[in-house]
Design brief:
12% strand, alpha+beta, 13 helices, three-stranded antiparallel sheet, globular
Length: 339
């Protein structure tokens, strides 16, 4: 299985590898990522920890208001300080001081580690005086890329998925994330079977496709104002529900597609994608599997506990779908593969 960043090792894909595949024992990586995105727009490269603490702590306290659980540890002096701030028991100046002292202890060193190895690209380095960080040219160049606008919502979606799993405190093997077709959102259920909306499905899936249309590999964008906003598409068409395919709304079958491929002249509509695209779906799903819960656990539940079992599952679905819908489709124009 190829690593996520092996094909098209661009800056945005290295960034996504950090967000999607790094270990998550606390939410500090996401707070740092969102802070780096903001700081890349300010125009200065040397950032003191007292300056970094301002956006970093802001994101942590905001997410504590959404979700009380922000890590796997039973207690955290830093998170307790953030809670006190939210309860008006701690002033902002004291929160910033506590963030400098406690908030960056592990995340600065661990940010660029993926699969127990440091990536060849760094988006910041710790300053020689140990009092802050230096933003690298890689981060500044990333901020000028076409994909940069997608990254904030991708970080937010990933953060929501992870913290929801922690908050529910359910065995990882029991977490099931489902898709709301009408609202294009991902949701799960708590211990009382109450529905918990997690995040929009588009940013949650976009990173795993490297910001590209699943079918033609053209750039797609998440902003509602974009001409090229992406569609959530069912790889095996939704019409198959009428033929007994009751699991077509599963995450394993959801991909992001550009307008032209999904609904434009010569688009896919209710046709079955050509066989080579099935291998691409398997690759995308394996990217999801090799990241951490809850999407990982959901995919395993839906398609199989081993890679050969998941491949066999897709092959069986493909035979059934083509027997019913007959017609196959592939994009007329396809760019260089991204995965």
């Amino acid at each position: 299985m190829a690593r996520f960043e092996d094909q098209q090792p661009s800056l945005d894909n290295y960034w996504r590898a950090i967000i999607l595949f790094g270990r998550n024992v606390a939410s500090y990586k996401f707070a740092l990522a969102k802070s780096l995105i903001e700081l890349s727009q300010v125009g200065k490269t040397s950032v003191g920890y007292d300056q970094l603490a301002v956006p970093f702590s802001k994101h942590v306290v905001e997410h504590l208001q959404l979700c009380e659980k922000q890590g796997t540890s039973g207690s955290s002096k830093y998170l307790e300080a953030c809670r006190k701030f939210n309860e008006n028991e701690l002033k902002h100046e004291s929160l910033v001081e506590t963030t400098v002292k406690l908030g960056f202890v592990n995340v600065i060193d661990a940010f660029h580690i993926v699969n127990n190895k440091e990536l060849p690209v760094r988006f910041f380095r710790e300053r020689a005086d140990k009092q802050g960080i230096e933003l690298t040219d890689e981060l500044l160049n990333l901020s000028q890329s076409a994909q940069f606008g997608n990254l904030p919502s991708e970080v937010e979606a990933r953060w929501r998925l992870v913290e929801t799993a922690w908050q529910l405190n359910i065995s990882r093997s029991l977490i099931t994330v489902q898709h709301d077709t009408d609202n294009n959102t991902l949701f799960t259920s708590d211990n009382r079977l109450r529905r918990v909306t997690i995040t929009s499905s588009r940013p949650a899936l976009n990173g795993y496709q490297k910001g590209r249309c699943f079918y033609c590999f053209s750039d797609v964008f998440l902003s509602d104002e974009s001409t090229f906003i992406t569609d959530v598409d069912h790889f095996f068409p939704h019409i198959l529900k009428q033929h007994g395919f009751f699991d077509v709304d599963g995450i394993w079958n959801l991909v992001l597609a550009c307008y032209e491929c999904n609904r434009g002249p010569g688009g896919k509509f209710a046709q079955v994608p050509d066989l080579p695209l099935l291998e691409r779906l398997h690759t995308r799903n394996e990217f999801l599997i090799t990241s951490h819960h809850p999407l990982r656990e959901t995919l395993i539940q839906q398609t199989g506990s081993t890679e050969p079992a998941r491949r066999a599952f897709l092959n069986d679905r493909y035979r059934e779908a083509t027997n019913r819908l007959i017609h196959k489709w592939r994009p007329v124009n396809e760019r260089a593969p991204a995965f």
